[in-house]
Amino acid sequence: MATVITPEHFSPVEDAEALKKACKGWGTDEKAIINILGHRNAIQRKQIRQAYEELYQEDLIKRLESELSGDLEKAVYRWILDPVDRDAVLANVAIKKAETEFPVIIELSCIYSPEELLAVRRAYQSRYKRSLEEDVAAHTTGDLRKFLVGLVTTYRYDGPEINERLAKSEADILHEAIKDKIFNHEEVIRILTTRSKAQLKASFNRYRDEHGTSITKKLLKDESNVLQKALHAAIRCIDDPKKYYEKVLRNAIKRSGTDEDALTRVIVTRAEKDLKDLKELYYERNSVALDHAVSKETTGDYKKFLLTVLGKED
């Protein structure tokens, strides 16, 4: 369920005119920009961009980049892009720091449907004139490269069918590899990069039933192993995306010094999908409303923007 609250009356021309006015003169009217864009869905935002360009022969995105700054500028920029272009930008930013920011690549590969991932790869090529997979390969090495390239190039079967015998045999393969700490086992990478989500969930369930603990708990033992961390993130994304995102939010807010990039990424990318569900899960797990946590850990217009997208006025 989405959190964005859109108005009953919508006119892209009126919004474009109001945004032009907000950017005129000595000071930018950030409040007006937030009140308009924070209450528009992706289709409406695209119509506003088109109306603005037709009216003023100017790119609204570039204008807002020049008018805003800091965390607010970054958040509004990601928000106003078409969702598939936003994902391409997020991937590109993450790739440049792929040894630490690989979870962003894993989210796109393991949470998105095969068609959604393909759309991101197309958008990435169009924007950067290179393929997503070649950039991932260029910025990673060894086993992490093999795993991430496998994830971004896959086109998983997306149906519900599962093979129980296969689930048992592959749960056993995963168990043996984790027990022996052979995380770069070719079979482990093959299973996680090619099997359908339904089949993988069946294997994870079989693992839990036979070994009395979840596969992710077994993978948590060594935080220094980057491939192990990547495998752990991929399994969590496939097994329960909402729990995965809730933990990203919790870590972003609770760590010493708020991780604004992670906080912005989850709120902006999930606001029109399942952010309402994430808010409920966050409250269940932390006994504090996500709106309240965001309000406490952020400031100024950046805080106002996030709260608007969360469906909560400050």
Taking pLDDT < 50 over at least 5 consecutive residues as the criterion, the unreliable ranges are none
Helix run count: 20
**Largest sheet geometry:** none
| Helix/strand order, N-terminal first | HHHHHHHHHHHHHHHHHHHH
Short synopsis of the structure:
GO terms for molecular function: calcium ion binding; calcium-dependent phospholipid binding; phosphatidylserine binding. The chain is mostly helical and 314 residues long.
Helix-strand blueprint:
Blueprint: H1 12-22, H2 30-37, H3 42-56, H4 60-67, H5 70-80, H6 83-95, H7 98-110, H8 114-128, H9 132-138, H10 142-153, H11 164-179, H12 186-194, H13 197-211, H14 215-219, H15 226-239, H16 241-254, H17 260-270, H18 275-286, H19 290-297, H20 300-309
Helix pairs in contact: 1-2, 1-3, 2-20, 4-5, 5-17, 5-20, 6-7, 6-8, 7-10, 7-15, 9-10, 10-12, 10-15, 11-13, 15-16, 16-17, 16-18, 19-20
GO biological process, one term: response to salt stress
Pfam families: Annexin
Binding site for Ca(2+) 1: 25, 27, 67
